[in-house]
Amino acid sequence: MARHVNAPVTRVVVIGTGIVGLNVGLRLLREGLQVDFVDPRPPGSGASYGNAGVIAVEAAVPTGMPSMLSGAPGFLLRQQGPIVVKPAYFLQALPWLVRFLSACRPHRVEQISTALHSMTRFALEEYERLFADLGLDDDIRRTGALMLYHTPASFQGAQAAIQLRRRRGANIEILGEKEVRDLEPASGPVHRGIYFPDYASLDSPQLLCRRLAERASTLGAIFHEAEVRSIVVAGGRPVSLHCSDGRELRLDGAAVIIAAGAHSKGLAADVGCDVALDTERGYHVEIANPNITLGRPVLVSDGAFFASMMQGRLRLAGTVEIAGLQREPDWRRADRMVDRARIAFPDLRATEWTRWMGFRPSMPNSLPVIGASPLVSHAYVACGHGHLGMTLGAVTATLIADAILGRDPMLDQNPFAPRKLRSFNPRIHDARAHRSTHSPKGNKPCNSSNTRP
Ligand SMILES: Cc1cc2nc3c(=O)[nH]c(=O)nc-3n(C[C@H](O)[C@H](O)[C@H](O)COP(=O)(O)OP(=O)(O)OC[C@H]3O[C@@H](n4cnc5c(N)ncnc54)[C@H](O)[C@@H]3O)c2cc1C
After folding, report:
1. 328-382 tens-digit pLDDT
2. What CATH class does 53-120+142-203+278-364 carry?
3. Would residue 161 be called left, alpha or beta, if left means φ above 0 and alpha means ψ between -120 and 50 degrees?
4. Are 11-48+208-277+366-443 and 53-120+142-203+278-364 the same fold in CATH?
5. How many Cα atoms occupy the beta-carbon half-sphere of 384 within 13 Å?
6. How does DSSP classify residue 428?
């Protein structure tokens, strides 16, 4: 049902070519719109490059759970732990952390879980629709996923999340050691496993992004290699993008969609949106010729990382480090995953590996921000997908397409709606006047090819 008040949008400019921006652009291309992408880096180079590739269908558990209220700040400051705040970043992170802890209250967790589930339940269906629409091979493997709990205490600690999933109707099976071993013979002694038969996985998240970008290109999308420093707004709508190389990209009536992952906060502010975004940095190591193989992604829960097979390589991906966009990676966190994997998979012989660090775009309440700016017309935000960006790419695209084309949304969008930035005046706003730079050092690739024997 169309509800256009202004002239319908026929052209959009998408900032960011991660999994979210690519999905949004492709969906709009299929709707007959003209699409331009702007990104200084090749498609799928940000967080969408190095993640664990899990499509967490029906996931309904936020990062912040009630048990964290009693454990904080102790466990957050334990530098060896799987979730850590770097002391030098603590003060900067404080507003985000306060909101994070507020979202850990039991009644909020229930609301957040319901909202997350309203999206994740459509994750696979929306990807299938996209692939069918585009005539693309379906890249998603129906593998399920397994979570390992090595001690009674860690399994006990997972009970609240298990109950939360059950309240959302999730399909989960609790397994004993023999059943775990039957499913994944490479796993060592374990107390319990939780099997998610409906989860799916990717053989290469980056390859999926590349294929989506190639298809967008054949459908007529234009890719601009540029970093957007600010969005210039005049007369209540965006008129141009100011780039870090001095270029001005005129929008000429096009709508703008901010899908710049962890770097979206300042750009969202340019169009009047208050997005409480920070980053939960995550790491991966990749072992080229592993002597073990896994049939599905396996979460090593006490290390907070997934072990997944990626085109024959073994990738260990996960952990959370709150340290902002500017600081150098702490590669010891990556190496610790290898130490932990050797215990979870006793036959694993790893002598060489590559390392990577990426920026999850994380909201303190684990809910992505998706929808139209409440203050600037023709401006949309699609960011903050945290741990679930690969899962939610296609659903996000449908929500943005519904918003742009004035259709009834497929689900209640209110929990994801961008909030107004107080004191923003859309008539007189010109981002160049108040922000000297958006360019984050963290937007550079963070790879380490140095391997540790
Ligand atoms: C270790 C790890 C494991 C993960 N595992 C999973 C998983 O198993 N399943 C899952 O669903 N999710 C997982 N995630 C989360 C997922 O990777 C992210 O949520 C998702 O990739 C975010 O996609 P995005 O498109 O929003 O951002 P990104 O992929 O980061 O893309 C943003 C793009 O915007 C560009 N950009 C930034 N600033 C500008 C600018 N100023 N101008 C123009 N372009 C700009 C960047 O260059 C980049 O290409 C994991 C993340 C990590 C780090």
Report:
1. 999 999 999 999 999 999 999 999 999 999 999 999 999 999 999 999 999 999 9
2. alpha beta
3. alpha
4. no
5. 28
6. T
How close is the Cα of 367 to the center of ligand 1, in Å?
15
Architecture of domain 11-48+208-277+366-443: 3-Layer(bba) Sandwich (3.50)
Index of the ligand 1 atom closest to the CA of residue 306: 8
Q: H-helix or E-strand containing 400?
A: helix 389-405
Question: Which pTM was predicted?
Answer: 0.94
Sequence letter at residue 20:
V
Specify the DSSP class assigned to residue 399.
Answer: H
- Cα(393) to centroid(ligand 1), Å: 10
- 45 CA: nearest ligand 1 atom: 49
Which of 51, 55, 432, 437 to mutate for ligand 1's pocket (most ligand atoms within 8 Å of CB)? 51
378-419 per-position pLDDT tens digit:
999 999 999 999 999 999 999 999 999 999 999 999 999 999
Q: Where are the domains positioned within the chain?
A: 11-48+208-277+366-443, 53-120+142-203+278-364
Ligand 1 midpoint to CA 337 (Å): 21
Beta pairing partners, 370: 382
pLDDT at res. 81: 73
| Nearest atom, ligand 1, residue 21 CA | 25
Residues within 6 Å of ligand 1 by CB: 15-21, 38-41, 45-48, 51-54, 56, 227-228, 259-263, 282-284, 306, 317-318, 358, 360-361, 383, 385-391, 438, 443
Q: Which residue has a Cα nearest atom 3 of ligand 1?
A: 51
Cα distance between residue 366 and residue 346, in whole Å? 34
Asked whether 302 and 340 are in contact (CB, 8 A), the reply is: yes
